[in-house]
Amino acid sequence: MITLSLPSPSQPLLPPSSKTLNPSRQNIIPSSDSRKNPNFEPLKNRLIRQLDVGHLRHAISTLDLMTQQKAPPDLTTYSILLKSCIRFRNFQLGKLVHRKLIQSRLELDSVVLNTLISLYSKCGDVDSARSIFEGMGNKRDLVSWSAMVSCFANNSMELQAICTFLDMLELGFYPNEYGFTAVIRASSNAKYSWIGEIIYGSVLKTGYFEADVCVGCELIDMFAKSSGDLGSAYKVFEKMPERNLVTWTLMITRFAQLGCAKDAINLFLDMELSGYAPDRFTYSSVLSACTELGLLALGKQLHSRVIRFGLALDVCVGCSLVNMYAKCTVDGLVNDSRKTFDQMPAHNVMSWTAIITAYVQSGECDKEAIELFCRMISCQIQPNQFSFSTVLKACGNLSDPYIGKQVYGYAVKLGLASVNCVGNSLISMYAKSGRMEDARKAFDILFEKNLVSYNAIVDGYAKNMKSEETFLLFNEITDTGIGINAFTFASLLSGAASIGAMGKGEQIHGKASNQTNAFVML
Predict the structure, then answer these.
(1) What CA–CA distance (Å, rounded) separates 96 from 102?
(2) Which pLDDT tens digit goes with each residue over 162-185?
């Protein structure tokens, strides 16, 4: 059991200045041997210029040249180089710089060690980051602790992040905005949301909420992600004394994602009235909200605007437009979706999956959807679980288990066959083709079965006149405690009708009525 007790300072603490958080480079003095060499400063300046334009490999060549000319790099040089590797996300070169740093035999200070923790954290090497942190001893400072909390939080090790945050408090370090944002991020799930709420209270007391926009954004995300509590998330948003484009877009996105599309659109209008210009992420989210509400006219207006502002070619916006035209077009045609897709200069798995989904949803273009899937693979784009799920639906609609089996074989090869949405689509595909034995095998090998899995197999049995198996599965669903929805009951009643089992039908209807009454009481 975790207990959390945050120290409460007598006066509200505002974030320390950037000078306190990031020790100045001028505090790190190069060795006297390096400074005596007339080549040291010119070579170091050349290295910095190379980094400024993103030429990391040239900079490493200059680093080697400094050693060769007996003007060995100082800690500042290594620190700048490591930070550039992180900024450009070239982690392999960052690790190479670390090896060269070890070979230099320089005594590492907290600034360089903290940068190394950040390097290994961002490339997902938690063990190396932890090893560096644990080896720092008394060199650990507030930045070190915050970096380690962030490392655990960003690598799905929420409990370790929270425990490290508590260790930091016990040792007398008071969190800064980076420590707070990291531990709030770790609390952004249902299991640890109670810790996040305690931290929220501490953030309000210390003044970080008013002083740092990032803390507010993490709090919005915590309430939205941990429990879908958009009311509390919006209260945080309203309390924030300073909001930027990221804050507005985050709140709009969470509204759109969690079933409050109307609120997302209203907030988008408020944002524009407040003088903020939407970016590609804002447009993508508000277009999704238009899709949810079927507001094609508003979506078309937004499409005109993104064209005017040069954002229509963005993959993120393009995917939202493809999806909107696919779902909102009354006649089921995919012309507008395809036109939008074809105008995009580059495609990724998201855009390919969006257009394949558009063809499948149209109801008459399943063959074209499969052809697009094949084109995606020929373009060296690796499908994800949603791509596989959608194309398997197309195979099911065409009653073509032969192609479906090939698609599923590729999903197995990529390690995606056990993902629920892929398995569920495979069950439906076999069921639509009348191959219930294969459908049952696909159902049985699913590692985790959800309501969609049960609905797919129950519906398959009912439509293929296998009513006894349908009723046996009904009892199995009841025993698992997964719950039953209207689709399940409709399939069960269909199964009862197919064999004229009035008694079974009345029994199922009675259970459906009881469940409906229970929902009403709730």
Answers:
(1) 10
(2) 999 999 999 999 998 999 999 999
Cα–Cα dist 444/442, whole Å: 6
Residue 33's contacts (CB-CB under 8 Å, 6 or more residues apart) are 70, 72
Of 185, 125, 121, 175, residue with least CA distance to 145: 175
Dihedral sign for Cα 353, 358, 364, 365, please.
negative
Q: And the tokens for 33?
A: 């041997």
| pTM > 0.85 | no
Cβ(413)–Cβ(419) below 8 Å: no
What is the total residue count of the chain? 522
- Torsion angle in degrees (nearest 10) through CA of 208, 214, 215, 220: 140
The alpha carbon dihedral of 110, 116, 118, 120 has a sign of negative
CB 111 within 8 A of CB 139: no
Residue 209 confidence (pLDDT) = 85
Single-letter amino acid code for the residue at 490: A
> Counting Cβ atoms within 10 Å, is residue 401 exposed (0-12), middle (13-18) or buried (19+)?
buried
Q: Rounded distance, CA 144 to CA 157, Å?
A: 17
CA–CA–CA angle 54, 59, 65 (5° rounding): 170
**pLDDT more than 70, % of the chain:** 81
The DSSP code sequence of 332-395 is ---HHHHHHHHH-S---HHHHHHHHHHHHHTSS-HHHHHHHHHHHHHTTPPP-HHHHHHHHHHH
Query: Strand, helix or coil at 192?
Result: helix
> How far are the Cα atoms of 220, 232, 238, 319, 481 from residue 227, in angstroms, in the given order?
11, 10, 19, 27, 21
pLDDT tens digits, one per residue of 248-292: 999 999 999 999 999 999 999 999 999 999 999 999 999 999 999
* Cα–Cα distance measured from residue 86 to residue 122, given in angstroms and rounded to the nearest whole number: 8
- Gap between the Cα atoms of 47 and 385, Å rounded: 44
Integer-rounded Cα radius of gyration of the chain: 29
26: amino acid identity, one letter:
Q
